[in-house]
Amino acid sequence: MRYMSDGSEVRVGDNVLVETGVKGRVVCDFDRRECLPGYDKWLTQETLVGGGPLSTAIMVETQEMGLVHYPSEDEEMCESLSQS
Fold first, then answer.
1. Spatial distance between the Cα atoms of 53 and 16, rounded to a whole number of angstroms
2. pLDDT in tens, the chain (84 residues)
3. CB 14, CB 83: distance < 8 Å
4. Which of 8, 20, 28, 38 is within CB 3.0–4.6 Å of 59 for a Cys-Cys bond?
């Protein structure tokens, strides 16, 4: 997955600006099967409520909106505030 603002790759640990100025942190990358410590349970292959396992793109944790899954590149997740 890449940032819409500059085309650079989104990485686990990046601090990002999403959804009209909300700040968050990338905690899981399902394509690479990577996550921050403590988020390993999201990499499960088990069926989750409402469908199958999360298997593509990224999960961002925010204070305001909680965990947000981005299944594909999204204009609302517009830029990295800092790279990890």
1. 24
2. 887 777 888 899 999 888 778 899 999 998 898 999 999 887 765 555 555 556 668 899 999 999 888 877 666 665 566 654
3. yes
4. 28
Alpha-carbon span 40 to 37, nearest angstrom: 7
Q: Which amino acid is at 13?
A: G
Name the domain count of the chain: 1
Query: Does residue 51 sit within a domain?
Result: yes
User: At which residue do the structure tokens 């099967």 appear?
Assistant: 33
What is the distance in angstroms between the CA of the first residue and the CA of the last residue of the chain? 16
